[in-house]
């Protein structure tokens, strides 16, 4: 039957699915459309949804008709469902748009029906898959170790801090991605460890369990009305988990000096300890006193010093131009 037939032009449903959602988990409107269709088509005979559709009693024809052929097949009021491939059938949709634009064809009703949707965080699955392939096929990435990548983790963390302080949103998004890459890369390397392997799922499961356990005011029966109460509980719970004998345990001594001093002061203040500063003179102890004072006033001494250093840098540049 010709597409110009005066009979009812029918209906074309383009059914899209997300590869990030398990095959067979489709929306109810999608199942209704599939069961009610006069014909279901799919150009990809290996489409991951096909076994589940056939298991549900739906006949799927492996075919890739042109736009004209599809319109002809709809004549007489028939409904055709096209299960889209990963690319979304751009050639078919472009062809239908061209036909509709001519104004000479009785076009069927066209509907785009998402059968499954990405959940928040779904793109993280793409990152894991890409990292897995890079680890397997890239000559450089396949040889990397935790120690070899350590310096990049430090660099990316500093670049993230700089993006935050500069207030550049585009740069912030990019640097967050670079930091996330370090996490996924290290987790992928850990999978290859012959003695104690773990995966990115193990990493995520660990931090989820930790967050839930340390937020009983969110996931449990306890209450916390101030950030200080939340922090105090966090430290108490952490001390029990780690079986630490001192609040100073777990503080990395290799971090920048001002940040280290502020962290020690924060731990002592949160624990309710009034520890006097060492009565020693010298620049180091002067800086320690300043860092403790900044922490008590809610100021990050590292960030404050970087801001001052940037102002000094600008002054130097102005002097050079003058």
Question: Notable features of this structure?
Answer:
322 residues; alpha/beta; five-stranded parallel beta sheet; 13 helices; disordered N terminus
Describe the model.
Helix content is 55%, strand content 7%. By secondary structure, the chain is of the alpha/beta class. A five-stranded parallel beta sheet has the order 3-2-4-1-5, sandwiched between helices. The longest helix has 23 residues.
First-residue to last-residue Cα separation? 82 Å
Quaternary: single chain
The biggest sheet amounts to:
5 strands, parallel
The helix/strand order is EHEHEHEHEHHHHHHHHH
Give the overall shape: elongated
The total of helices stands at 13
Unreliable segments (pLDDT under 50, ≥5 consecutive)? 1-5
The SS-based structural class is: alpha/beta
Strand order across the biggest sheet?
Answer: 3-2-4-1-5
Q: Overall pLDDT, averaged? A: 90
Number of strands: 5
As a percent range, the share of helical residues equals 55-70%
Could you tell me the radius of gyration in angstroms? 30 Å
Roughly what fraction of the amino acids lie in strands? 5-15%
Structure summarized in a few sentences:
This protein is an alpha/beta fold and 322 residues long. The chain has helices spanning 28-36, 50-55, 67-74, 90-102, 123-137, 146-166, 169-191, 200-213, 216-219, 227-242, 257-270, 283-296, 301-321, and strands at residues 11-16, 39-42, 60-62, 79-83, 109-114.
């Amino acid at each position: 039957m010709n597409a110009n037939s005066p009979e009812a032009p029918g209906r074309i449903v383009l059914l899209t699915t997300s590869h990030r959602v398990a095959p067979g988990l489709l929306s109810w409107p999608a199942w209704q459309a599939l069961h009610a269709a006069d014909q279901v088509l799919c150009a990809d005979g290996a489409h991951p949804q096909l076994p589940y559709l056939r298991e549900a009693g739906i006949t799927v024809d492996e075919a890739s008709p042109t736009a004209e052929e599809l319109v002809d097949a709809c004549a007489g009021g028939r409904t055709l469902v096209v299960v889209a491939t990963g690319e979304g059938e751009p050639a078919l949709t472009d062809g239908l748009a061209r036909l509709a634009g001519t104004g000479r064809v009785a076009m069927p009703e066209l509907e785009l029906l998402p059968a499954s949707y990405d959940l928040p965080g779904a793109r993280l699955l793409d990152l894991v898959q890409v990292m897995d392939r890079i680890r397997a096929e890239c000559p450089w990435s396949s040889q990397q170790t935790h120690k070899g990548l350590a310096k990049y983790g430090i660099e990316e963390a500093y670049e993230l801090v700089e993006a935050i302080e500069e207030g550049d949103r585009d740069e912030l998004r990019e640097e967050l991605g670079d930091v996330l890459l370090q996490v996924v890369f290290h987790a992928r390397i850990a999978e290859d460890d012959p003695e104690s392997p773990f995966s990115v799922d193990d990493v995520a499961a660990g931090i989820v369990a930790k967050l839930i356990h340390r937020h009983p005011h969110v996931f449990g029966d306890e209450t916390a009305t101030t950030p200080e109460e939340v922090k105090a509980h966090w430290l108490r719970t952490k001390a029990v988990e780690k079986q630490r004998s001192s609040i100073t345990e777990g503080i990395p001594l290799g971090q920048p000096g001002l940040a280290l001093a502020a962290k020690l002061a924060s731990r002592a203040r949160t624990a309710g300890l009034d520890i006097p500063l060492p009565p020693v003179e010298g620049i180091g102890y002067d800086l320690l006193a300043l860092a403790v004072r900044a922490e008590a006033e809610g100021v990050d001494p590292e960030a404050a010093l970087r801001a001052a250093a940037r102002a000094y840098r600008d002054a130097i540049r102005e002097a050079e131009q003058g």
